[in-house]
Protein backbone atom coordinates (compact mmCIF):
# COMPACT_ATOMS: atom_id res chain seq x y z
CA UNK A 1 0.00 0.00 0.00
CA UNK A 2 1.27 3.47 -0.91
CA UNK A 3 1.36 5.82 2.08
CA UNK A 4 -0.64 9.02 1.68
CA UNK A 5 1.33 12.22 1.44
CA UNK A 6 0.41 15.12 3.72
CA UNK A 7 1.60 17.64 1.11
CA UNK A 8 -1.80 18.24 -0.59
CA UNK A 9 -3.49 18.87 2.76
CA UNK A 10 -0.70 21.20 3.87
CA UNK A 11 -0.88 23.14 0.60
CA UNK A 12 -4.68 23.41 0.77
CA UNK A 13 -4.47 24.71 4.34
CA UNK A 14 -1.81 27.23 3.31
CA UNK A 15 -3.95 28.49 0.41
CA UNK A 16 -6.99 28.86 2.69
CA UNK A 17 -4.87 30.80 5.18
CA UNK A 18 -3.59 33.15 2.46
CA UNK A 19 -7.16 33.71 1.27
CA UNK A 20 -8.19 34.68 4.80
CA UNK A 21 -5.16 36.97 5.13
CA UNK A 22 -6.05 38.75 1.89
CA UNK A 23 -9.67 39.19 3.00
CA UNK A 24 -8.55 40.44 6.43
CA UNK A 25 -6.11 42.91 4.86
CA UNK A 26 -8.86 44.36 2.69
CA UNK A 27 -11.39 44.40 5.52
CA UNK A 28 -8.96 45.98 8.01
CA UNK A 29 -8.19 48.70 5.47
CA UNK A 30 -11.91 49.34 5.01
CA UNK A 31 -11.67 48.28 1.36
CA UNK A 32 -15.19 46.89 1.11
CA UNK A 33 -16.46 49.07 -1.74
CA UNK A 34 -15.11 50.48 -4.99
CA UNK A 35 -14.42 54.00 -3.62
CA UNK A 36 -12.46 52.49 -0.71
CA UNK A 37 -10.41 50.07 -2.85
CA UNK A 38 -6.70 49.83 -2.09
CA UNK A 39 -3.58 48.91 -4.02
CA UNK A 40 -2.18 45.50 -3.13
CA UNK A 41 1.28 44.36 -4.06
CA UNK A 42 3.01 41.21 -2.97
CA UNK A 43 6.26 39.77 -4.23
CA UNK A 44 5.32 36.25 -3.18
CA UNK A 45 4.03 34.12 -6.04
CA UNK A 46 1.46 32.11 -4.07
CA UNK A 47 -0.07 35.27 -2.60
CA UNK A 48 -0.39 36.82 -6.07
CA UNK A 49 -1.95 33.60 -7.39
CA UNK A 50 -4.46 33.45 -4.52
CA UNK A 51 -5.41 37.11 -5.02
CA UNK A 52 -6.06 36.41 -8.70
CA UNK A 53 -8.09 33.32 -7.75
CA UNK A 54 -10.22 35.41 -5.39
CA UNK A 55 -10.72 37.96 -8.17
CA UNK A 56 -11.72 35.20 -10.60
CA UNK A 57 -14.18 33.84 -8.00
CA UNK A 58 -15.68 37.31 -7.53
CA UNK A 59 -14.83 37.49 -3.81
CA UNK A 60 -12.39 40.33 -4.48
CA UNK A 61 -13.16 43.04 -7.03
CA UNK A 62 -10.76 45.19 -9.01
CA UNK A 63 -11.34 48.80 -9.94
CA UNK A 64 -8.66 50.97 -11.54
CA UNK A 65 -5.96 48.51 -10.46
CA UNK A 66 -7.10 48.64 -6.83
CA UNK A 67 -8.82 45.88 -4.89
CA UNK A 68 -11.75 45.62 -2.51
CA UNK A 69 -13.54 42.79 -0.75
CA UNK A 70 -17.03 41.91 -1.91
CA UNK A 71 -18.28 40.68 1.48
CA UNK A 72 -21.37 38.76 0.26
CA UNK A 73 -19.34 37.04 -2.48
CA UNK A 74 -16.59 36.27 0.06
CA UNK A 75 -19.16 34.57 2.31
CA UNK A 76 -20.40 32.48 -0.62
CA UNK A 77 -16.81 31.59 -1.57
CA UNK A 78 -16.09 30.42 1.98
CA UNK A 79 -19.31 28.39 2.18
CA UNK A 80 -18.52 26.64 -1.10
CA UNK A 81 -15.01 25.88 0.10
CA UNK A 82 -16.36 24.36 3.32
CA UNK A 83 -18.80 22.26 1.30
CA UNK A 84 -15.98 20.94 -0.91
CA UNK A 85 -13.89 20.06 2.16
CA UNK A 86 -16.80 18.21 3.75
CA UNK A 87 -17.44 16.26 0.52
CA UNK A 88 -13.80 15.22 0.31
CA UNK A 89 -13.79 14.15 3.96
CA UNK A 90 -17.00 12.17 3.45
CA UNK A 91 -15.48 10.40 0.43
CA UNK A 92 -12.34 9.54 2.41
CA UNK A 93 -14.44 8.11 5.23
CA UNK A 94 -16.60 6.06 2.84
CA UNK A 95 -13.61 4.74 0.90
CA UNK A 96 -11.74 3.91 4.09
CA UNK A 97 -14.77 2.08 5.44
CA UNK A 98 -15.13 0.17 2.18
CA UNK A 99 -11.44 -0.69 2.24
CA UNK A 100 -11.70 -2.01 5.79
CA UNK A 101 -14.87 -3.98 4.97
CA UNK A 102 -13.23 -5.55 1.94
CA UNK A 103 -10.06 -6.34 3.84
CA UNK A 104 -7.88 -4.08 1.72
CA UNK A 105 -6.29 -2.46 4.76
CA UNK A 106 -5.31 -5.66 6.54
CA UNK A 107 -1.75 -6.87 6.79
Given helix and strand content, the structural type is mainly alpha
From the alpha-carbon coordinates, what is the Rg to the nearest angstrom? Answer: 19 Å
Helix/strand order: HHEEH
Q: Beta-sheet strand percentage?
A: 5-15%
Q: Uncertain regions: pLDDT < 50 for 5+ in a row?
A: none
Please tally the helical runs, counting DSSP H or I stretches of 4 or more residues.
3
Q: Residue-averaged pLDDT, rounded?
A: 90
Largest sheet composition: 2 strands, antiparallel
Order the strands across the largest sheet as they lie in space: 1-2
Cα end-to-end separation: 10 Å
Task: State the helicity in percent bands.
Answer: 55-70%
Shape: elongated
The number of E-state strands comes to: 2
Overall tally of domains: 1
Question: Quick recap of the structure?
Answer:
This protein has about 110 residues and is mostly helical. About 60% of the residues lie in helices and about 5% in strands.
Amino acid sequence: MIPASPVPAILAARMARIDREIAATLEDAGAVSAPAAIAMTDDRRLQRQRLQRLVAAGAVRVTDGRYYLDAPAWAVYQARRRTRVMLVLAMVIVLTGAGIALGIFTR
